[in-house]
Amino acid sequence: MPTALSASALTATHALPVAKMPAAAEKLRIQGDGVELAVYRWGNSEGPVLLLVHGYPDNHEVWLPLINELSADYQIISYDVRGFGASQIPRRTQDYRLARLANDLEAVIKALSPDRPVHLVAHDWGSIQTWEAVTEPRIQPLLASYTTISGPCLDHVGHWMRDRLKEKRLASLLKVGSQLLSSWYIGFFHTPWLPEFLWRNGLTRAWPTILARLEGIHDPHPNSTLCSDGQHGVKLYRANFITTMFNPRERYTPVPVQLIVPTRDRFVHPQLFEQLQRWAPNLSRREIRAGHWQLLTEPQQLALWIHEYIEQLGAPAPHA
Questions:
Q1: Whole-prediction pTM
Q2: CATH number of 57's domain
Q3: Cβ proximity of 144 and 76 under 8 Å
């Protein structure tokens, strides 16, 4: 069973905390799998290493409030995922496949933390893509722990849907149906040219208002490359969803996993994690009454949970 952390349930407030931003990052360029990645480093060079991976349509800037909370005690690394921020933008959809994204993650770790496993923290598509690395035996020795927020493994979701449909029970079918309705945007992102057109013609300007109305976030601060990120990031969906969901693999991990579940997430329902311990037996679960992005507006709480989890695990062994 998950650890006692599963009993934790908090309510997030709706205002973005006013916090001093962290000191300027050290900016690096690292070669990933066929692309050059923009990588950023902050904090205590002697502390445990945190690696933060953003989702869609964000870039590394989404983590700045959290970094401010943790940079005194941790060495913190984040990077712009391929196609986002200041990283290179592949043009081919196939270049956004999960295996290549996992290779990028591996390259960053080997370049910046060659001797110490990192504590991985990811949100949304950052979580979806890093599940590929967390369940890859070659990469697992590089990871001390994994904190995942609002992003399931697509293979796990594929198995979850198959299992629910096999039950042939109304309650199970309703679970699948409700998730499909909440995931309407995935089908939209598979339509040619229209998502890109909308990001160029109004959606970028409207995004802060959308976050405020749907998520209850006051004064949201979209990232500086939002228009480009929204357009190119849809290739993540096109490259991975159909092939993975209809042909799910069995993806296991011994890496300690801290699952943070916003129970009011409009896009990723908590039910998608019902079977997670089957795939990640070293699992701790926390819940928060919040929406998809709401938890990131509570950086103090997220920082506390990360700190507690790392302290609980103890110092990781160096790489073999």
A1: 0.91
A2: 3.40.50.1820
A3: no
